[in-house]
Every structure is written in C-alpha cells, then in structure tokens.
Amino acid sequence: MEKFLQDVQNLLGLRLTPRQVSAFQLYEQELTARNAQINLTAIRDVEGIRTKHFLDSLSCLMVMRDRLPRRMIDIGTGAGFPGLPLKIILPGMQLTLVESVGKKADFCRHVVETLKMEQVLVLQTRAEELGQNPSHREQYDWAVARAVANLPALVEYLLPLVRIGGSILAQKGESGPAEAHKAEHATHLLGGHLRQLRKVNLPGVAEDRYLVIIDKIAATPPQYPRRVGVPCKDPLK
Prior knowledge:
With 237 residues, the protein is of the alpha/beta class. The protein is 41% helix and 21% strand. The protein has one domain (2-233): Vaccinia Virus protein VP39 (Rossmann fold), CATH 3.40.50.150. A hairpin with an 8-residue loop joins strand 6 and strand 7.
C-alpha cells in the first residue's frame, strides 16, 4: 500500500488520510474476495488493482480540481470505477453509479454499505433510459465513464445527463485522440464542446491513457439519447 500512496502523491499531489487509506484497503479486500467467486474484473493481482483501478480512477482529479463535482454520475461503472475511488476522496459528493449487469451493481451496493458511504445511488439500468428520465436528464455536474463504448456512442450516453455548464469525462486508452476527432459532429450536435485531451502516465503501465473532457455548452436536443442499443449500433456521424 505504501507504493500506492506514493503514486497518488506523485501523480496528484494528494496525501490520503488514514480513513481514506482504510477505505481503499477494505475496497481492495472486498474486490479480491468477491472476484474469486464471480467475474467482476480481469485484473486480479493487488498491484494491478491499485494502479489500473484505484490510481487510474483517481487520475480524473487531474482535470476535475478546478471544478469539483457536487453531483456526478458514473455510467457503466462495473465494479465501481472510477466513481467509488473518487467518492473516497470526495466524501461530500452526490454519486450515482449506473451498471446494467446485476452482479456488478450488487457488488457496488455491497461496497457502498461496507464503507458506510452516504449519498450514493446504485442503479441497474441503461444510460439511454436515464438520459430521457427527468430526474436525471441534465441534472449532473459531471458524467464519467471508463472503457464503456467508443466516443461517438459515449457522448450520446453522457451529454444528456449533464447540465449546461457541466462536463463529461471519458477515460480512454491510446485511441483517445482519434476517437475525439471521430466524435466531433456528435459532440456538437448534442450540445458539447471538446475542451481538453489530457495524457495520463500511470507508473508501470506502458500503454498511453487519455482523459477526454467535453463541456456542455447547449441543451441536448430532446430526441437524444435514442432508444436502448441504438447509439452503439448506429453512432452519430
């Protein structure tokens, strides 16, 4: 855990409190134990969990610091990434986790209960449905996603959920710049403007990672997102 703490400090300039360290240790234990029973993530070794899940999730803070989220939604969160690590660092944030796979949504609820987190809502549903739900549409400061879909489809999932003046953050691999270029039309159509492509270098990880940040500058047209499944099958061009 010492290496992880040093990596967090080196990457973000953050010193974790004892309570935060304890939360990450407990999260790691629960993920390792549950992963032995059901397939939550392909990353099973401790160092991989700390770097490729926890530290990778916290890298979002590199671009969120100027405007920390009061209300954030994490689409396709899987075993809780990046939402739950960010919640450990930002305990006052209202967080909604969205996961369509039942066993993963159940695990997220288990972690929230185990870590005694407040103001966390876990929903087993699809982003397309939430984007047309008045309780969630244009209600969030930030919408985030990691390894969910190609960016032309992903912007249709995320942009309807953030308010004007809010932003979306997509965590991407080396294809990030190319995907951002390919998603230019969809981004503009849905009320967004590409603000930044931020390269992230994780210690011990060879492949490039990028944070793609898109600001919401206009309302999303009411017909978007389209019905479940359509954004991925027929991305906006």
